[in-house]
Specification:
heterodimer, A: mainly beta, seven-stranded mixed beta sheet, four-stranded antiparallel beta sheet, 11 strands, globular, B: alpha/beta, eight-stranded mixed beta sheet, about 35% helix, about 20% strand
Chain lengths: ~180, ~300
């Protein structure tokens, strides 16, 4: 019985997941957000158990569906993105919001409890795609984040995650004048 | 006229607000591969039973038959779906009712048995395991069937069950418990629990049993070898290996003989078949699948003209 997981988060337990994980989030100015997560769950997965993984006092799954292909789609709302780790699926994901002058910064830290060496040739295997729409124009992002207006997208290679104790993604944006 | 102008003004304000506000284009949905799209023609549906103790998933093939033959099956379901069977899978959420999962033996003082039969002492060898089998067969499966007969896509006269090893034990007991199961396939399983515990490589491995009397009495109420007449309503196929170390033939053979006698007495000998393959492994291969699908095709494949076929 393998563990199952989710968004950036899924990350955490990610070694158990096969194939690509995509996470698309929308952060609002008040710190709440919506997450759309797609991944492949194991054959014995149930929507009931997946839903529990995405449930906490701050995280609320709205939609969970496991298709026959085992493609699994989750939509969850988060009251406060900095409390994301309260849901089991995100237990290894720390999110911090801070100010940098007039800008705001969001840092997503995906911890890997058991980093392992990875052969040098295995560096480009796409594994997780994380997209985030922010409440303002993005100024810059780390980890080769692709910026387009208010959106940033990161690709995280499995080898990057496996070899590191933490994968850190950071984005800085200019808050919109109007909420 | 005034109301028309007001409507136009409101519309203008709305359009401007939408144009000037922050862009909220929905992100593009991840592409679905053609293989996934093909598989996803099979509808999945999930429900919770018994206060969340059991999760049941339906896998409904896109066949024209409005009420489909249905098989409760754990493991690979693709072959059954490909043959037009609606497949039912389930998961028991043992933690919901604070029950122990079946494979969690307590701390041992004089440990005996291995793997699922591992037990703290010989007098309770396999007790947790057999209780889990009994709970599944006697309580969970009937509740699943209770629900299945209410599902529009399920033909209530064509419900079957298949299981291997532990799920094979469940299959044999469930058949004895629920008369709505029309066909069943038990692979690598048996129903003489005394012989199973005594001779299985996971149990006493041939050494004598020394079971607690109360536990032994309970076993007698459960094992199908003592109650084979309870199964004769079902078209039952048993498939075993003659030298399977986990499910010993000393358990298999008495079970099959008892069932053969019971079906004969009920004048429905054709509903029982016992198939033995020569092998010293506890496992399955293509022969099991061939036998199982043929059995389900025969007994569940087409709607019986007047109730169940005999």
């Amino acid at each position: 019985m393998t563990a199952r997981r989710g968004w950036l988060a899924i990350l955490a337990l990610l070694p158990a997941l096969a194939g690509c994980v995509t996470v698309e989030g929308t952060l609002r100015a008040d710190g709440s957000c919506t997450l759309d997560i797609t991944y492949r769950s194991p054959p014995d997965a149930t929507e009931f158990l997946e839903r529990r993984q995405y449930t906490s006092p701050f995280v609320h799954p709205e939609y969970v569906k496991i298709f026959e292909s085992q493609r699994t789609v989750v939509r969850a709302t988060v009251d406060d993105v900095t409390r994301l780790s309260t849901a089991p699926a995100f237990a290894f994901v720390d999110v911090v919001r801070s100010r940098d002058g007039a800008d705001e910064v969001l840092q997503i830290r995906i911890r890997n409890p058991k980093p392992q060496p990875v052969p040098a040739e295995r560096t480009s295997d796409a594994w997780m795609r994380i997209g985030l729409t922010l409440p303002g124009r993005v100024r810059d992002a780390t980890h080769d984040g692709q910026v387009a207006g208010t959106h940033v997208a990161w690709d995280v290679a499995k080898s990057d995650y496996v070899r590191s104790a933490a994968t850190v993604l950071s984005v800085r944006w200019q808050p919109s004048a109007t909420p | 006229m005034r109301s028309g102008a007001l409507t136009a003004l409101l519309l203008l304000v709305f359009v401007l607000a939408a144009a000037c506000g922050p862009r909220r284009d929905p992100p593009p949905a991840p592409p679905v591969s053609s293989r996934d799209a093909e598989l996803e023609r099979i509808e999945t549906r999930e429900t919770q039973l018994d206060d969340d103790f059991v999760t049941v998933r339906l896998h409904i093939p896109p066949t024209p038959e409005p009420r489909k033959p249905t098989v409760i099956a754990m493991g690979d379901r693709s072959a059954l779906l490909g043959r037009g069977f609606l497949v039912v899978t389930y998961r028991i959420n043992w933690d919901v009712h604070n029950q122990s999962p079946p494979a969690a033996p307590p701390p041992a003082e004089a440990p005996v048995g291995e793997w699922v039969l591992a037990s703290p002492s010989p007098d309770v060898l396999g007790r947790e395991y057999l209780r889990a089998v009994a709970t599944t067969a006697n309580e969970v499966i009937p509740k699943i069937v209770d629900w299945l007969v209410t599902v529009p896509e399920v033909d209530p006269a064509r419900i079957g069950i298949i299981g291997a090893s532990t799920n094979g034990l469940v299959t044999l007991q469930a058949v004895a418990r629920d008369h709505r199961i029309a066909a069943a396939v038990a692979l690598a399983a048996c129903g003489d629990y005394h012989a199973f515990l005594r001779d299985s490589s996971m149990g006493m491995d041939g050494q004598p049993l020394a079971l607690d009397p109360a536990y032994e009495r309970w076993i007698r109420t459960q094992e199908i070898v003592r109650h084979p007449q309870r199964a004769v309503h079902t078209a039952l196929l048993m498939v075993n290996r003659n030298r399977d170390p986990v499910i010993p033939f000393s358990c298999v053979e008495p079970t099959a003989k008892a069932l053969e006698r019971a079906y004969r007495r009920a004048h429905v000998s054709g509903r029982f078949r016992f198939t033995v393959f020569d092998s010293d492994r506890h496992g399955l291969d293509a022969r099991d699948a061939t036998a199982a699908w043929a059995w389900f095709d025969r007994w569940l494949g087409s709607p019986p003209p007047h109730g169940k076929a005999g």
